[in-house]
Design brief:
alpha+beta; 3 domains; six-stranded antiparallel sheet; 20 strands; 15 helices; 509 residues; seven-stranded antiparallel sheet
Length: 509
Amino acid sequence: MTAVMAPGEPDWQRLNPWMLAVTPLRQLAGLLPVIAVVVVIGIGQDVGGRIYSVLVGVLVVMFTGMLRWFTTRYRITSERVELRTGLVFRSTRSVARDRIRSVDVTAGPIHRLFQLSVVKIGTGERAERREARELTLDAISAAEADRVRQRLLDPLDVGGPDRSGATVASAATELAALSWSWLRFAPLTVSSLVAVVAVAGAVGQLINDVGANAVDVGGVREKLTMAPLWVGIAAFAVLVLMIALGGSALIFIEAWWGFTLVRELGGTLRIRRGLFTTRSVSLEERRLRGVEVVESPLLRVGRGARTVAVATGLGGRRGHGRGTLLPPAPRSEAHRVSGAVLAEDPSPTATTLRRHPLVALRRRLVRATVPVLVASAALWLAPVPSWVAWAVLGLLPVAVLVALDAYRNLGHALTSRYLVTRHGAGVRGTVALQRAGVIGWTVSQSLLQRRTGLITVTATTAAGSGGYSVIDVETAEGLAVAEQAVPGLLEPFVLHEVDGVAHTLGSTA
C-alpha cells in the first residue's frame, strides 16, 4: 500500500550512497580476527577451500550492506521523524519531534574517511531495547547530519538552510575547551585504570603463553632470576605503573581530543570530542535542571572533578558520557563551568554549604565501626588463625576515616534559584538543582533517625537520577529547606508527623 503524503511534506530520502562502502568495511573490520583464525587453521589442509569460504562470507557481508541501503528510507516532516527499513519484513518507525530529547552525531574512522556521520535521535525513554529509545540514521553526509541536528533541536530552525540552500552560521559562545594540562588527571580516573589493568593482564597472559624465552633480551631474564625477590617485585611494579600511566593518557587523549563545550544560538549546549571516533552531543537548555560536580577518590587527591548535566532525556545515571559537560579537570574549572552552564556567577556548586549536626557524624561512626568490630569478634571465636581476626580489626582506622570523610562531605544550601546539596563517602557529589525543577518531596526518617532528631529530605525531579537528597539534617531545618525551596509545595503536609515511614510529597502539576 502506498502511503498518502500530506501536501508540502518532504519526500522519502535514501542514506548516503557511500554507505555501500562503509557498511561492508566496518563489518569486515570486525570479522578480521575470525578471518585470520580461519586462514591460520587452514594452513597445511584445504587452503583453497578455506579461502573460498572466507570469500563467500565477504560477499555475503557486502551484499547485506548493499541491501540495507536499497531498503532504507527516512524523512523529517514538520511534526515527525520517520524511518523505514527491511525488504521482506518491513519496519516503519516514527518519532514525534516534540518528544525528541537528544540528537547525537558520531563518526568513526571509516565514516570519517568518507565524510559521513551517524545521527542518533533519542526520546529519553528508559526502554530495554535500544530501538525503542533511539532512531539511528547510519549514515548521512557530515554536512547533512549537522543540518538535521540543528533543525531537530531548534524549534525556530536557527542555523537551517536559507533560500540559497547554504547553511546559516549560528553564533556560539565557547564555555570550555580542552587544556592539555588536564592530562595529569588521566591516571586518576577509575575507568582508565580498569581498562589499563585489563590490557596489562592480557599482555601478561600473552607473555606467559609465549614463554619467558621470548622476552629474554640481553640476558634480562637471567639477571632477574639471580636478583633478590624484591628487585623482581619492584621491576614488575614499575612496568605496571608505566603501562597504567601511558595507557590512561592514551585513553584520555582518544576520548577528549578536541573537546569543546559551546552554547549555540537558540539555547543548545553542544559537546564535541574524540580523536578516532568523533562525538557530538547536543543538550537543550530548556531540559536542563541543574549540574553536578563529581569528585572520585583519586580525583579528590589531585584536586580534580568532572561536571555532569542534570537534565531530562539522558537516561538517569550520572557520569555517563552523554551527560558529561567537562572531562576530569581542576576542581576550580569544574565549578567555573558549572556556573557558566547555569548562567550563574558565582557558581551555585561553589557556594558555602551549611554543615550538618554532629549527631550525623556519630551515626556514621557507628555504622562504619560496628560491622568491623562484630566481624573481628566473630573471627576470634571461630576456628581460624588469630591473624585473620587481627587483619579485620586493622580495618578499624580505615572505617573511622571513611566515616569522617562522609560527614565532612555533608552539606546543603539555598540560593536564589537553586537547591545545593552535597554528600558521599569517597565519591563526593555536589548538586545544584533548579528550585523550579522540583516537582515533589520525599521525607523519610528511620528509627535511629527518630531517636536523634534527624530526617532525610529528597527533592523529586524529572531529570537526572530522579531525586537528590539532603541527608541527616535536623527535622525542623529539613522541613524548612523544603518549604523555602518551593514555597507552598510542602505546606499541606507540614502538620503530618514523620513516623518512620517514607512519605512522598508532591504536586500534580
